[in-house]
Amino acid sequence: MAHRPERLGEIIKxxxxxxxxxxxxxxxxxxxxxxxxxVSTDLRHARIFVSVYGSDEExxxxxxxxxRAQGYVRSELGRRIRLRHTPEITFKLDKSxxxxxxxxxxxxxxxxxxxxxxx
Length: 119
What we know:
Elements: H1 4-22, E1 31-39, E2 45-53, H2 56-68, H3 70-80, E3 88-93, H4 96-116
Parallel strand pairs: 2-3
Antiparallel strand pairs: 1-2
Family: Belongs to the RbfA family.
Subcellular location: Cytoplasm
InterPro entries: KH_dom-like_a/b (IPR015946), RbfA (IPR000238), RbfA_dom_sf (IPR023799), Ribosome-bd_factorA_CS (IPR020053)
């Protein structure tokens, strides 16, 4: 039973990804990637972590649009996934990819300065 939340999280990730790609037509939703899904052990709550490519304003607009679409996404999940109770969903902005890109940029800058002999 311990693996059930993980399996459900993967199913939710696949289904919501498909909805974002093919069904949600809100122009505020930019380039959004689902990075992970955490499902509570009682399967009643699911946190969907998303990464949004773009400026802070674009990220904010995308998150607002996703939050407004929560009801639709939850009802579609209930229709697609046969469960006794469809989990309550929340979208959370995952900034780990942005931080990772920034760290890589800094490492490249340090490496380039070392190759040139700058101190």
